[in-house]
Design a protein that fits this description.
The complex is a heterodimer of chains A (338) and B (272). By secondary structure, chain A is of the alpha/beta class. Chain A has 12 helices and 13 strands. The chains are: A alpha/beta (338), B mainly alpha (272).
């Protein structure tokens, strides 16, 4: 088993802000009060990530995802606990750590706003001391996957969101970092651009064994890219396992939709009723929906049973989608904390 | 050193390039500067016209003309605010992007300002200085500035630049504490207009105040280089003033490092 590249142990982060009061009177009162509110954004999180892993880090809005990423990239200092990335404590050795990481924050850009896009890359080349050969090789790769050349000479402020995002990803990868943090990299992008970005991330991971940590609200990103998933809620880690494990744990429910060739007679109706047991039946206008747990019986069995009763025109199998699973986990944790 | 320059120089160079990006801004900027200078010039001329003696605060009318243009151009060149930039960085949270790079935040800001300074040194300062030198010799009948004085002035301007920028960096650290700095910046600028001698030469202030000012870094930001240029200091005094400026550069640099160490730990990134 290889060494852990990233290790977080009991990391907490608290923010202290001045207390604000509602209304105009409150605003004035706020000027004179010294009361503060402490908000725990990250609460006792521990996990370890190995080199080359692609991990989806998800949670509802405000769960503390970005805060964790910022601690791992050395911008924020944890209130307590330890965080080690590639043998360094990011916030103690920020500049050294910065050489090992690439960061994309979906809502910010690191590109040079007023200048043609190409300028940004030349600056980054100097900052990270990328050799000429490496630079050319990587730029060629980015051009290839992300199609940058069509807007290489446009000023950054004139780029569309999709173009900017692609350019930003290339900027984060130019120095071939060991770890890539992506904080909502596909926010607000169309399907084609999303696809390109995923493609680039996948190739980088395969070619350079780059470790990728990805936060997103688009679970398709996770499904296409990550092998592992960490879910946090209200600053606490609530789930950490491989994607397959997650599906096994939560994705066992399955439903099959049958459409009858012709209406059932009363005899067939009775036979359906006797099925019962592990199968939950929902009658529909022209057919029936059968819900069951995959742990108890297989799809083939269910289909065979129903086809034995009546002639079927059409069958649709619906597995639980990741979205539903995650929704269930979020809701489950809310139920626990309330 | 060479490596250092290779990493940080692009920040200065790009700042110079950015200044040419917006054409309208380019011309309006120059126009605004000339407007400011001439308002200031006519104001002083009116004061001298109505004064009973030809000398005010130790300045003859001709010297005051030089003072007006020199102090205006020097403070314009030297006072490239970084605290407002820190303020923006903090308010919209983009400081996060700077901190994920293997570069020093302050050095980056200093080089950016250096870019602006170089830009302003050429557009339009250099041309004003040449014009002023011609005016000085042809119209005011004063001798050509000797190379020694010019060198000392330029050196002093460079020190002024670093004093101001390191001071402004310390001031900008407030942005991390208060998360908003715009108002304080306006107060700071208004105060500095007085304390640096940009608005009124320091010699117009009461002696007691002048004594206090000599212990503060502000006169070293504009007043000192202008006085060197005007030849108001003797050779030894020039060296003394330059030494004092160098000392302020070091002190403010160290103080800035100290503040950053304190503040780095409690940085908050706004806006998600």
């Amino acid at each position: 088993m290889s060494e852990n590249l990233i290790e977080l142990n009991n990391v907490c982060k608290e923010f202290v802000t001045a207390k604000h009061y509602p209304g105009f009177k409150g605003a004035v009162k706020g000027l004179f009060s010294k009361e503060t509110v402490t908000k725990t954004a990250v609460d006792d999180i521990s996990f370890a990530i190995q080199e080359g892993e692609m991990v989806g880090y998800i949670g509802s809005n405000g769960a503390g995802k970005s805060t964790t990423i910022k601690m791992m990239s050395g911008i924020l200092t944890p209130t307590s606990g330890s965080c080690v990335v590639n043998g360094l404590e990011p916030y103690r050795e920020r500049k050294k750590n910065a050489r090992n990481i690439g960061v994309v924050f979906g809502q910010r850009t690191q590109l040079w706003w007023d200048l043609p896009l190409g300028e940004t890359y030349t600056v980054l080349k100097e900052i990270y001391e990328v050799s000429k050969n490496d630079f050319e090789e990587r730029m060629a790769f980015f051009n290839d996957v992300l199609n940058l050349q069509e807007f290489m000479h446009s000023t950054v402020r004139t780029l569309s969101l999709g173009q900017r995002m692609r350019a930003d990803l290339a900027a984060a990868l130019l120095h071939n970092p060991k770890v890539l943090y992506l904080d909502e990299p596909t926010i607000g992008l169309d399907v084609v651009v999303k696809d390109r970005i995923r493609q680039a991330i996948r190739e980088i991971n395969q070619n350079y064994n780059t470790t990728v940590i990805l936060t997103t609200h688009d679970l398709n990103d996770i499904e296409e890219l990550c092998q592992r998933i960490i879910i946090i809620d209200a600053g606490k880690k609530i789930y950490d396992a491989t994607l397959d494990q997650l599906k096994c744990d939560y994705g066992d429910s399955c439903s099959v939709l049958f459409e009858w060739k012709q209406n059932l007679d009363s005899n067939q109706e009775d036979m359906l009723q006797t099925l019962g047991g592990q199968l939950v039946l929902h009658k529909q206008e022209k057919g029936i929906q059968v819900c069951f747990s995959k742990k108890e019986c297989s799809v083939a069995e269910v289909i065979a049973k129903i086809m034995g009763i009546a002639e079927v025109k059409d069958v649709q199998i619906k597995e639980t989608e990741l979205t539903d699973i995650v929704k269930r986990i979020y809701q489950g944790s809310e139920g626990k904390t309330v | 050193m060479k490596k250092y320059l290779r990493i940080y120089w692009p920040f200065a160079a790009n700042q110079i390039k950015s200044n040419f990006v917006y054409k309208g801004r380019f011309y309006l900027f120059i126009l605004r500067k000339f407007l400011g200078m001439f308002i200031y010039y006519y104001l002083w001329m009116a004061i001298y016209a109505s004064a009973s003696s030809g000398e005010l605060g130790g300045f003859s009318r001709s010297e005051m003309i030089l003072y007006v243009f020199m102090s205006y151009t020097i403070s314009d060149m030297v006072m490239v605010g970084i605290s407002s930039e820190i303020g923006y960085d903090v308010t919209d949270g983009s400081v996060a992007m700077s901190l994920t790079k293997p570069i020093d935040y302050r050095t980056r800001l200093v080089f950016k300002s250096l870019g602006v300074m170089i830009y302003r040194a050429v557009v339009p300062t250099l041309f004003i200085w040449i014009g002023l030198e011609i005016y000085k010799v042809c119209k005011l009948g004063m001798p050509v500035t000797n190379p020694m004085t010019m060198t000392a002035t330029l050196l002093s301007v460079l020190f002024s630049f670093f004093i101001y920028i390191f001071f402004d960096y310390c001031f900008g650290m407030l942005a991390f504490v208060t998360t908003y700095i715009f108002g304080m910046n306006i107060i700071k600028n208004a105060t500095l207009n007085f304390l640096t001698g940009r608005l009124i030469p320091i010699s117009f202030f009461p002696t007691a105040l002048q004594k206090i000012f000599s212990f503060l870094p502000f006169t070293a930001m504009t007043y000192v280089p202008v006085m060197i240029y005007l030849g108001k200091y003797s050779g030894m005094q020039v060296l003394e003033q330059l030494g004092k400026q160098a000392l302020w550069v070091v002190v403010l640099y160290l103080f800035g490092s100290f503040l950053w160490k304190k503040i780095e730990r409690r940085i908050v990134i706004l806006g998600g």
